[in-house]
Amino acid sequence: SMPTRVALIAHDHKKDDIVMLAGEYVATLRRCELLATGTTGSRIAAAYGLTIERMLSGPHGGDLQIGARLAEGDVDMVIFLRDPMTPQPHEPDINALVRACDVHDVPCATNVATARMLLDTLATKTAAA
Predict the structure, then answer these.
(1) Angle CA(29)–CA(60)–CA(40) in degrees, nearest 5?
(2) Calpha distance 8→97 (Å, rounded)
(3) pTM of structure
(4) Can you tell me the distance from the alpha carbon of 105 to that of 114, in angstroms, rounded to the nearest whole number?
(5) Measured between alpha carbons, how far is 24 from 28 in angstroms, rounded to an integer?
(6) Distance CA 81, CA 35 (A)
(7) What is the SS3 assignment for 129?
(8) What amino acid positions are annotated as catalytic residues?
């Protein structure tokens, strides 16, 4: 069966969180195909040596690139650690990506607690595979 394709995205104030989260689940993420927006992807790749297909940064269109891939059926899960306290210049792109997850019935975690639930499920699934 195909590896699970996971998109990893984090706003600036959440980048430390997503790097930490990826570290907790590095064994699981190694069995997945990963894509990420710009800096998030390079930080996770540098920290753990994971292979990650990097898109543009969110403000430069990375969220839209991931949304397009998702619409084509190329993304199985989205971990999108949003910063709810800081206005984002690309808010419409963020909303479009979350909407695309809802339209295409793709699991989308927007905070660490939900991300852990999704990744725990994935850990069980990939270990059995």
Answers:
(1) 25
(2) 12
(3) 0.95
(4) 16
(5) 9
(6) 14
(7) coil
(8) 63
Radius of gyration of the chain (CA): 13
Contact 23, 47 (CB under 8 A): yes
Contact 7, 81 (CB under 8 A): no
Q: How far apart are CA 35 and CA 9, in angstroms?
A: 9
Distances (CA, A) of 72 to 4, 90, 101: 15, 22, 12
Residue type, 76: D
Q: How many CB atoms lie within 10 A of CB 70?
A: 23
AA letter at 95: N
Which pLDDT belongs to residue 99? 96
Q: 32's torsion region: left (phi>0), alpha (psi -120 to 50) or beta?
A: beta
Burial letters for 105-129: b for 16+ Cβ neighbours within 10 Å, e otherwise? ebbbbbebeebbebbeebbeebeee
pLDDT tens digits, 54-103: 999 999 999 999 999 999 999 999 999 999 999 988 999 999 999 999 99
